[in-house]
Fold this sequence. Notes:
Six copies of one chain form a homohexamer. Chain A has 305 residues and is α/β, with parallel strands linked by helices. Chain A has two domains: 29-189, serine acetyltransferase, domain 1; 195-233 and 243-305, UDP N-Acetylglucosamine Acyltransferase, domain 1, CATH 2.160.10. Chain A contains eight helices and 15 strands. In chain A, the strands form three sheets. In chain A, strands 1-4-7-10-13 form a five-stranded parallel beta sheet. In chain A, strands 3-6-9-12-14 form a five-stranded parallel beta sheet. In chain A, helix 3 runs antiparallel to helix 4 (103-119) and helix 5 (121-138) packs antiparallel against helix 7. Chain C binds chain F through residues 29-31, 60, 62-65, 67-69, 71-72, 75-76, 78-79, 82-83, 86, 103-104, 106-107, 110, and chain F through 29-31, 60, 62-65, 67-69, 71-72, 75-76, 78-79, 82-83, 86, 90, 103-104, 106-107, 110.
Amino acid sequence: MKSADEVADNLIEGYLSPPTDTPMQHVGNYELPSREEVSRIVEQCRGLLFPGYVGPSVARLPRAELGIVVRERLDELRNTLRRQVYRALHHKAQSMGNVEDHCGDCAEDAADITARFIGRLPELRDLVAGDLRAAYVGDPAASGIDEVIFCYPGVYAISIYRLAHALSREGAALIPRMMTEQAHERTGIDIHPGARIGQQFFIDHGTGVVIGETCRIGDHVRIYQGVTLGALSVPYGAERPRAGSQRHPTIEDDVVIYAGATILGGDTVIGKGAVIGGNAWVTASVPPGAKIAGAHSRRDTSNGS
Amino acid sequence: MKSADEVADNLIEGYLSPPTDTPMQHVGNYELPSREEVSRIVEQCRGLLFPGYVGPSVARLPRAELGIVVRERLDELRNTLRRQVYRALHHKAQSMGNVEDHCGDCAEDAADITARFIGRLPELRDLVAGDLRAAYVGDPAASGIDEVIFCYPGVYAISIYRLAHALSREGAALIPRMMTEQAHERTGIDIHPGARIGQQFFIDHGTGVVIGETCRIGDHVRIYQGVTLGALSVPYGAERPRAGSQRHPTIEDDVVIYAGATILGGDTVIGKGAVIGGNAWVTASVPPGAKIAGAHSRRDTSNGS
Amino acid sequence: MKSADEVADNLIEGYLSPPTDTPMQHVGNYELPSREEVSRIVEQCRGLLFPGYVGPSVARLPRAELGIVVRERLDELRNTLRRQVYRALHHKAQSMGNVEDHCGDCAEDAADITARFIGRLPELRDLVAGDLRAAYVGDPAASGIDEVIFCYPGVYAISIYRLAHALSREGAALIPRMMTEQAHERTGIDIHPGARIGQQFFIDHGTGVVIGETCRIGDHVRIYQGVTLGALSVPYGAERPRAGSQRHPTIEDDVVIYAGATILGGDTVIGKGAVIGGNAWVTASVPPGAKIAGAHSRRDTSNGS
Amino acid sequence: MKSADEVADNLIEGYLSPPTDTPMQHVGNYELPSREEVSRIVEQCRGLLFPGYVGPSVARLPRAELGIVVRERLDELRNTLRRQVYRALHHKAQSMGNVEDHCGDCAEDAADITARFIGRLPELRDLVAGDLRAAYVGDPAASGIDEVIFCYPGVYAISIYRLAHALSREGAALIPRMMTEQAHERTGIDIHPGARIGQQFFIDHGTGVVIGETCRIGDHVRIYQGVTLGALSVPYGAERPRAGSQRHPTIEDDVVIYAGATILGGDTVIGKGAVIGGNAWVTASVPPGAKIAGAHSRRDTSNGS
Amino acid sequence: MKSADEVADNLIEGYLSPPTDTPMQHVGNYELPSREEVSRIVEQCRGLLFPGYVGPSVARLPRAELGIVVRERLDELRNTLRRQVYRALHHKAQSMGNVEDHCGDCAEDAADITARFIGRLPELRDLVAGDLRAAYVGDPAASGIDEVIFCYPGVYAISIYRLAHALSREGAALIPRMMTEQAHERTGIDIHPGARIGQQFFIDHGTGVVIGETCRIGDHVRIYQGVTLGALSVPYGAERPRAGSQRHPTIEDDVVIYAGATILGGDTVIGKGAVIGGNAWVTASVPPGAKIAGAHSRRDTSNGS
Amino acid sequence: MKSADEVADNLIEGYLSPPTDTPMQHVGNYELPSREEVSRIVEQCRGLLFPGYVGPSVARLPRAELGIVVRERLDELRNTLRRQVYRALHHKAQSMGNVEDHCGDCAEDAADITARFIGRLPELRDLVAGDLRAAYVGDPAASGIDEVIFCYPGVYAISIYRLAHALSREGAALIPRMMTEQAHERTGIDIHPGARIGQQFFIDHGTGVVIGETCRIGDHVRIYQGVTLGALSVPYGAERPRAGSQRHPTIEDDVVIYAGATILGGDTVIGKGAVIGGNAWVTASVPPGAKIAGAHSRRDTSNGS
């Protein structure tokens, strides 16, 4: 049995060994982004999207104090976000061997990305409003918009995806993925920030939903728990896909995909208004308006499992 | 690019604009319920159901101090719960245009609902004891009741459902849904507080389980991960369902439903003692004692995905 | 309606009633393990596996201070772990009626188990490094090892399984299960610490994955979300399975299992290099290299759900 | 040098050795009061005396919610206080060798003491209002009652004394002393809870003030920083003073005592309206209306220190 | 004995009764400043004055990240400070009966005051540097500037006075007093923010020091624990002093005042380079360069106390 | 008015300017000690001296678990202390220009100092037990040792001095001073860790007490609030005193010093058993057994202040 000191020495040796293909530690001379700070970013954004629902109360504030509060929250968001975006950019530049003296660029880039992202918050808020409406209209059990905001994991995951997608398009690295992964943890809904999703998107219940990086989804689409929009498998160890190639399906406007359905492949297009049945397995395109049945069962006397 | 000040002004304008059909903010003159406080309610209830397992230790307390501790916990629960129930009722009354001067009623109603709910805690504890037994008996891998309480997400989700359902029946709004949604987040098991579930209910593993608002489930039922007990789809934008209509299935006593099965529709009845196979898709009633096979696969040479 | 005092008295009576078959409370004369402390153990271990990624920054530390920090973290882990392992052993001994005066043994056993576990940390770290490589190689969307560590729930769940499995083999009770259940909560991936899993294991997305207690999994295996490796059902209330009997399947090296597939039974062996299609349902062995198709759907005009 | 294990063993041996005249540890079978909880009691009381100034905001609450909030705060205070009063009584009973089976009395006594104390809160609030007025009137630099509440350490220390004195008179042990000692820490003003102090008492600045256990102070008294109202010295190791004997001075109505003055002895009476000069040293009675000069200095050429 | 409900009703009645001359509650429609937030302001300022000594580490930051960090801290300070300054101004305006619609001015004024204060931080930092030098030079026991920053309460109290005085001169109400009172709590040194104090001021040990509102203190002054620079007493209940009248002494450059000395009165001037002995009592002016002996004792046989 | 950006640039420029004689920032490549961590050290030590009184409860622990708990606390103390001692030594070495490659020595020295200090904890505990006895015997108002531990600031300050003095003698820099300064903040009692103090030392009330670096105090000494044991003044800007020269008085066994007395000078010896009256001013030696009267006042008609 190793002694505690041997364990310490072994670990330190591992931490300090020359970079390998699997660097599990970061003991270099700068900081990595922080999961906890990314969680704060998410809550700060949500506090600006849903004031009164998320974050400290803003009830009964006079107009003037409301102005103070909103500016405070924007400042806080800017600072938290800028630091994390900086760290991710700096880490990326370092990982790619960029020289130290370009470091100032990362700080400037981070400030620009952050400012542009914050500039888009009002339009992102409008987009999320559409998603809320879609959820309220799409679920007959919803008792009001308040229940939708408080209790619908789909709305949580989609709104974070909206933020992460916008941040990603402005040029941020790693942080958007950390944001959507946090939503995945909380909701079981895994939306890659690279996916492109239209207006009024609704996911009900949502546990187990996976939406891949190069998906394209139109307006007014509804999907249910356990739906996968994935890639066809690639041989183990194949080379990285070319940037720009589409590996995940296209879902056109007004499509409904029921629970447990799986739709795979970059050439697969689900046409406008199609309905995909529960547990369906789809690897080829479906014309507009079609209905694809799910995998039904029959009654028999065999042992059910 | 919008400046920070423009963003602030845009956001505030949005917050203060006259009520629309999608009110995403709450800047009115009262507080909404709080997710964090609802989490505290859940932990306070669980601390009373499972003392020594949940919440501060009660080991080695003399009898007299135990009496003090239990009364403290009941007081804390009453206060936390009453405040949140009040906020939800008040918000509901306000949303429906009820006049200000009826506000005192909300406070009184909240106090009454809370007192009745707390009065039911001993019987709820007995009910949960039955669920624990069902889990221990139902899973051969369970090493003891302690493991069941600490490690079984199904037990967590069911016990919170039991609490939320009772609270809902006493007249609380919104809070019960927030409670079960919290269990959903933690376990991936989504049980609507409106469902009616008999004794000794067991869910194993549980990720992806969905149990809809108007389900009726008998005694001694066992279900596994990924099972949906849902509604048949309704046309997009259909009117709200009538209160009282049953949209989700009825599961009679002693039924077992294996992983991934989907059972839909308010007229669907799974008869006493039936067994539903894994991944089965069921939209019609099944007689008592029947066995429904799941969707089996066959060996072939085609590409598997 | 019961008064608050009646509720308190009813609850206390329940807490103090003689042990039944469902002891929901622990008011005895020692402490149970604590969920919160088990969470700390998990984070402390991860901080040692992934310094710089998890836990307080170690960036820019001089070599001498790094040595101090690592020893500190090992001390903290040893203390937290030893206490929880002790509590679980002591509780188990008490539950089995072991006499009080053997209590010292639990403390000694806990110290030994903890020391041996910590002695294995360097090799566990190597094992986890293999899993990281498998994830990076297995997912073309992964932008780097940093994204894999921060954003891949499969890596999170597998690394905690690695720790829990090792701890379990050293003789710890209950704590390993609490560790993997915590990973289950966060990721939706439920791996029993008793399972035996080879090198370079990869789970993608992962929500809904269940891997049972007696599974044996070879090297280089890849599985996707919603996969169950389970037991065939046993009659309700059957006696506990014999220790040592295998109830869950064997998965040989290089197997790939796509999303939603279910593989059941202790005699089921998936041969080396086989591929199991999405949503497949497998209850019998599959020869090496075989491809098992999933449950595909067909286009029809019936109502999709 | 002792090894860590020797240190541990030495310490444990000390902890477990039979009771001596200096028991520095408490490893018995019940809990002692907690400094942290006593701090909470102080803040809870102050939140009820000064709502809006101390504790969570109560601004803009509708009347009905204010009623809820006040009842919550009273419940919280009752619970925190009852527990600490119980612990102190129980400890005292145990220390005096009272038998175990009287333990229920402590719990009952604690509940009674707590209830009576809470019953006196409204009158205590009136008393404190008088002290506030005295501070505002007594210090020309005070800009308003708000500054007095926020910034006057004398007001802080006196209001805690008022609470502690009342609690002491209802029969609580040790807790009142812990309360005034907390005020001492924060303000440098050390008032024993046993002192009897009339209305509209004012202490300015206050650092270094000491007011002994058997002092009697009339109405409208003002004192400044560094004033001692103490006992004449007793021979080292003299026996405990008889309960009821007065060891500290009597200060009649309307007296003013300037900074640094020292007044000693149980037979010393400072008559109504007297003025005691700065740094004065007084060990004999002073008639009503007298002015006692402080210790003045003269100009000289010697080294000043 | 009052019941809990009676107590609640009594308290609420008191809270809601029409404004009296002693308003101990604030249940109006806006928030008061918060002690906790004022503490944050103090720490935020100190973090900017003494980076690396106070607040999160800035060691080993690259230049670019240091720029980010400093801007973050300035933003945080601006937000925290602006909000508290606003609340104090708004409260003051409301207390003086100013009409609601002027409220916007408070927000604007608070923003202006905050911006001007922050603009002065670099010069305040230079001023504090002088005080540090004075402490290091003035105390032969100081081992270095680091010990002075970490361990000298005089430096703590003076630097907070410097900040509070500047903030007060920019027009902030109440907050400066709350800042210096916090320093008083921690150090026992009570400096009114209105006092005017020159460069390189040093207070050693400091417990019990009081420096009144209208004091004027020159450069290079040193004072020791227990020194009072106060006002001559005013008849009880006298009218508020005229703004602008000087009630506290003037201390010219290079004066030293030893422990326990008391100097009173607005007409009292301690001339340049004078030395005031320990425990001295001074109520008249002292010429430049004079030495005033303290109150010395003589040996005798009387009982010493 | 400077803009925020100008302020930031000014501050950064100041932070990065070459070292001056007043380095107010630490932006170098290592960390300084932390006030917060020093507070933890103090509480960790006190938890080992006074288990059950300070820190988490140890009531009702079985013997075996008590062993675990004590070892845990010693480990925690060792780690926290070693890190802070290291930082202070490293900082000192760097400040004195020691070269980087000696850095390993600091880590080793810190480990040695810490181990030796911990080895002395049992004897320090005995020393503190004597101080407790002295307090209980010395104050007739003390109701028991429990009140002495909970409520006597003198005991708090002396026990921290005992720890800090021992740590200082083992070779730690700066940390001992930070420890006693923390006690100063809380109690108003300022004891330099360099002072040498005999057994059974008692300080009553204590606010304003100052005990200088080179004091020597015998056994069984009692002192009261406001007592200064200081140095005679030195000309402003005099050179640092020689190490080893005694600047503060010697107090022999059994001396009593009443409130407000001031004793100055390294040649001043207060002989065994002497009594120094309140407010006395002593700058020359006093023979054994002498009684020195304080500064008494007389009645007169002059204005008292």
